[in-house]
Amino acid sequence: MTAALTISGVRKTYGKLEALKGVEFQIQRGEFFGLLGPNGAGKSTLINIIAGLVQASAGNISVLGHDTVSDFRTARRLLGIVPQELVFDPFFNVTDMLRIQAGYYGCGEEVWPWIDEMLQRLDLWEKRKVSMRALSGGMKRRVLIAQALVHKPPVVILDEPTAGVDVELRRTLWTFMRDLHSKGTTVVLTTHYLEEAQEMCERIAIIDKGEIKALETTQQLLARHPFRFLRLKLAEGAVLPVELQPLVAANINGSLELKLETSKNSFSSVFALLRRDGVAIEDVQTRDPDLEDIFVELTGRKGEVAA
Ligand SMILES: Nc1ncnc2c1ncn2[C@@H]1O[C@H](COP(=O)(O)OP(=O)(O)OP(=O)(O)O)[C@@H](O)[C@H]1O
């Protein structure tokens, strides 16, 4: 079966800077896929090339088998892209703007019920007759999401859709996206919020400095991390055994977080050392690695954790 997106040897140079260094992967139909990377990794450049807004220096991309350059119109019609920045025409009201947008894709009255459904699902119904310039930033963002989906595209790309948006919109958006995904839509998400990617995405690519550093299922990505974490709150005045001191990765509100290599440091060996030195402990917690740990390991940079 043709992949939803096929990215083959895509390079992009800006002068001497190689923003993308031969990126190559496929996203299968019906996947919920995450594209993660620190600032400047090349995510927006890749999305802009997919959208036909930026020309690749080499390589090609196809959407459900349609090349984004030689078959631009078909490829673009199959895509719904929710951009980062708010771009809209201030003179129309919400409904008119969505109907006009549908017209750009050659859709007419047959999609009006879908527009009404989106207005309701995205909590825009009360605002449907309000002009775009009178909407708050959060409301404009909701319209932008509806605008990208107005032609019912089978492949949806969300470029940092929840950066700076309130918790309520984030929830509304994810419920809506989960529902579209359950009906067969392919969803590609770029985000800085690693918790969000961990929760939503089935497969994740981590991109850094224009290269794909990892591409696996979310479960594989989490499982291959060779560490576990043990958080110890020592009693006042207690001192960690000298052998354990190099394992301290963080001090979180007075608790020491030890990073244990699964193959080397068992929990029982740690507790044997604590017993040996008679270290009094007030509290113990363990934690499996999350996407944040993997991300830091692969890129050496921190992402953000969703509120
Ligand atoms: N028009 C441009 N001219 C020159 N350099 C550019 C241009 N657009 C992007 N770059 C550079 O290309 C690299 C990749 O940028 P890009 O915006 O794709 O990263 P990103 O992963 O989307 O980052 P962010 O998460 O901050 O949006 C960066 O070093 C950036 O400075």
From TrEMBL:
Record keywords: ATP-binding, Nucleotide-binding, Transport
Keyword Translocase in annotation: no
Domain annotation ABC transporter: ranges: 5-234
GO terms of molecular function: ATP binding; ATP hydrolysis activity
SMART domains: AAA
Matches recorded under SUPFAM superfamilies: P-loop containing nucleoside triphosphate hydrolases
InterPro entries: AAA+_ATPase (IPR003593), ABC_transporter-like_ATP-bd (IPR003439), ABC_transporter-like_CS (IPR017871), ABC_transporter_ATP-binding (IPR050763), P-loop_NTPase (IPR027417)
Identification of the protein by name: ABC transporter
UniProt lineage: Bacteria, Pseudomonadati, Pseudomonadota, Gammaproteobacteria, Nevskiales
